[in-house]
Design goal:
The structure is a single chain. With 192 residues, the chain is mostly helical. 73% of the residues lie in helices and 0% in strands. Helix 1 crosses helix 7 and helix 3 runs antiparallel to helix 4.
Length: 192
C-alpha cells in the first residue's frame, strides 16, 4: 500500500522545489525594483517625475481608444487617465519600492503567500494596462506560490515567523479558555 501525505502537508522535497521558484521570482522582482531606483530606469521612475509611469499609462489609454492593445476595459482606461497619469510621480516611486520589497520578501521567504498576492496584483495591473511580456508567466508562478504557501516559505523566514504566530495564537486560545471558565463558573451563594 502506498502512503501519501494529505494535500497541504509540508514536504521537504516540495520545499526545495518551491525554494528555487521563490528565489528566482524574487530576484526578478528585486532586479526590476532596483533598476527603477538605482539602475538604468531611475531617470524615468525615481528622478523623472514618473515619466515611465506616464508613458506606460498613456500607451494603455491610447491602445484602448484605437482598439490595438492597451487597456481593454473602458473603466481601466478611465482609471489610468484620471488617476494614474496625474499622480505618476508618487506612483512611480511606490511601484519601484513595491517591486523591490516583493523581491526581497520572496528571496527571504517572509510571508510568501501574501507577498505572492502582492506580486500577482502588480502583474494584473500591468496586464490590464496592455503589457504582456513576462507578466503572465510571473502570475502563474505567483498563484502557484500562493497555493503552496506552506511549502514555499518553509525553507525561509516563514518557518520562524509563522510558527511564532501559530504559537502565539495557541497561547491566547488557552488564556481565553481559562478566562471563560473563570467568568462562567457559578458563584457560590453567600449565607449569613
Amino acid at each position: 500500500m502506498i502512503r501519501t501525505k494529505p494535500l497541504g502537508r509540508r514536504s521537504s522535497a516540495a520545499s526545495l522545489i518551491w525554494l528555487v521558484v521563490r528565489v528566482w521570482l524574487g530576484y526578478q522582482w528585486m532586479n526590476a525594483g532596483y533598476q527603477k531606483i538605482w539602475g538604468s530606469e531611475k531617470s524615468a521612475f525615481w528622478f523623472g517625475g514618473g515619466a515611465g509611469i506616464k508613458g506606460f499609462a498613456a500607451a494603455g489609454v491610447a491602445g484602448s481608444s484605437t482598439g490595438k492593445g492597451g487597456a481593454s476595459y473602458g473603466w481601466w482606461a478611465g482609471f489610468l487617465h484620471n488617476f494614474v497619469i496625474p499622480n505618476a510621480s508618487w506612483i512611480a516611486k511606490f511601484i519601484a519600492l513595491g517591486e523591490l520589497a516583493i523581491g526581497i520578501a520572496l528571496v527571504l521567504g517572509l510571508f510568501t503567500g501574501l507577498v505572492a498576492l502582492c506580486g500577482l496584483t502588480l502583474n494584473l495591473v500591468y496586464m490590464f494596462t496592455g503589457s504582456a511580456g513576462v507578466n503572465p508567466a510571473y502570475a502563474i508562478l505567483e498563484v502557484s506560490l500562493m497555493l503552496a504557501w506552506r511549502n514555499a516559505g518553509y525553507l525561509g523566514l516563514d518557518r520562524f515567523a509563522l510558527s511564532g504566530a501559530r504559537r502565539q495564537r495557541h497561547v491566547s486560545k488557552i488564556a481565553d479558555r481559562a478566562a471563560h471558565r473563570r467568568t462562567t463558573a457559578p458563584t457560590p451563594a453567600l449565607t449569613h
